[in-house]
Amino acid sequence: MKRILLVLTLLFLSLSALPQAIGQWQVYPSYWKATRNILVDDRVYSLCDGNLLVYYPSDGEVQTLDCLNGLGGVHISYMAYSDEAHRLMLVYADGGIDLMDDQGALQYLPDLKNKVLAGKEVKGVSVHGSMAYLCTGFGIVELDMKEGVFRNTYRLGLSVNGMTTDGSHIFLTTTKGVYVADCSDNLFQVDSWKCVNTSQFYEVYWFDNLLVTRHKQGIYALNAATGKIARLVKGGSFGFLRLTDGMLYWAGSDEVGWCSTTDKAQTVEMDNEWLDVSAKAGTLWVSEGMQGLRCYGVEGNSLQPTAGPVQPNSPAHDLFYRMQWAGDRLLVAGGINTVESIYNPPTAMYMQHGEWVNLPPLTAEDCPDSYEGMVISNTTSLVQDPADENHHFASLHRNGLCEYRDGQLVHFYHSDNSPLRSILPSVSKYYNYVSCAGLQYDVDGNLWMLCSETDTIVRVMKPEGRWVALYYSEIAGVSMCDDYLLHSSGLVFLNSRRTTHKGFFCFDTRGTLENTIDDLHVLRSTIVNQDGTSYAPNEFYCLTEDLDGRIWCGTDLGLFVINDARAFLDSDFRYEQVKIARNDGSGLADYLLNGVSVSCVTVDGANRKWVGTHSNGVYLISADGTELIHHFTASDSPLLSDAVQCVAVNPVSGMVMIGTDAGLCSYADTATRPEEELDKDNVTVFPNPVRPDYNGTVVVRGLTMDSEVKILTSSGRLVYSGTSEGGTFAWNGRDAQGRRLASGVYHVVASNAEGKKAIVTRIIFIR
Asked: Domains (ranges, CATH) in the chain?
């Protein structure tokens, strides 16, 4: 297996050192937060935020596996290993299962995923011999890991947390208590299972002739015959219980414990984030959450770190709520802006040249001492100062604004030291309700932000640090604004996403930012299209300006266009819905993406639109919207999820970054930002030379918009011609009849759209 993984890693490194081939996908999993590990012979399998890496302690080698290099799914919920079957089991969040042997060969089992069955989510896994027992919301499922087949399904009407056996009996910990059944009984019969204790426990092991299990208030030993329990370890909440190498291990936030028998427990006081342990001969491999995978040695009553942390460069989390390019940096805000109580860890990060920089999150130590019990979560946007690439701001859904310099947090703006205001200023923990989102810089270096649910939504920080507040009665106190569009016309658009006073809002400062008296402004809560058809969306999500100044608007009822930004202020304004001809002889047409919930719209270098949706994947449509070029979904492409949250297109490389609720992936597309003038020094051809084993797309970059490109033989015979998409011309490397080109040197002749200037470069084919 190590050899196979090494080949995959070297292949990945060789690909990442070159421009990503047109049509190629790539994924960017997080390998930062270590949550579970399994020590097997010469390697440690480490689960990190649902992603898998393999670490070899002997030489420090790290390999990563993902859905593009063999795995059958994304987001691994559980993993377990059978010494008898010599196989690792990976259980995905959707119910799919991979079995991987020691040589790296994979067998994918979709049976549970495809089953229509209430409560089929897996809540735990227990392995005994070659059999794995999946604990589910309806009972247990038995899987033969050696043969790779499901054996039995026990529908017990119990939501099972854990399972173990003493060889004669099977024990289950469930939400209704601890149940036991004799192995010789008919285990399919619900009556065969007897409740011996009504407390809710989690992991459970047969250890020292007792059931040892974890409760939220401690570690307990339970007499299987009488159901009586005794607290083995007192204390607060313990995050896990693990039987490994004949020893029990557990950990809370301030202590670690272990025992070889239930009457010989040892504990060590230490601050820790331990989430799992694998042990062998006194060496502990520990999953330490955001501290990564680390090795400890046991020395008497103390634990000493001996190796690690193992944390490959990667995103801090698989959270991609908002993204944008700042030059060659991809800026990522990894939270969410929501009325629901979803508390994602605050995540602000950027990627440059394939390397990730994770900005340190706001912590309690960065807050005023009086902010006791502050809940810090959900980064809603991240921007880079156009005057200083080492200066960033990150907004938080309910905490305010963070300022970073040189990768370090230097200031925290909240309701007690800035004009930002709390939504609930009179409650004791008012500091948990300071909304901030939608960060954008304008051409004058002003930082714009949106502060929902307060009297003054629109706030601006001037370059010198002075604040400006813009009050508009139509949006005062609205529940959620999180998307700004600073239009090239000078108008400002924003979304009022939902509930009362929802809609798209536009205002014109008329050149006087700090004086709103003469401002023009309007909120449109309904949408009327060019045909007079009226819509009343429940959600107004996004606004994007294309290269022609048109505004593409995403709602839960579809995609709409503002053709003339200034006309939005007129009383008779109407949106446009692009029509797609049916081409069935009827002469009829359908509205583009009508009824599809659109989460985001991004424009590429050819003015084409990448449209992300909440449940239908991502679409690529032509510049005018009348042609569907691509539609990617998770079922027919490497797209990680159909729930797309954001899309960002690199204008130079054409790389399309797609953020989903399952993580980040990219697609190498053909369109790049066009050059203003044709210059041979800016034109590149890839690959060059084209070798015999290459069957991909040949691209010519650095062209002007709609450049005409001709491929000629050395004698001047035309073999292919076409037009660039933005600044890129893509070609399959064949002649007009679809035949592969013979070996030789070919001329690439490109002229601008007006035919007034041309450049010539060369490309070599080797057959």
From this structure: 680-765 (2.60.40.1930)
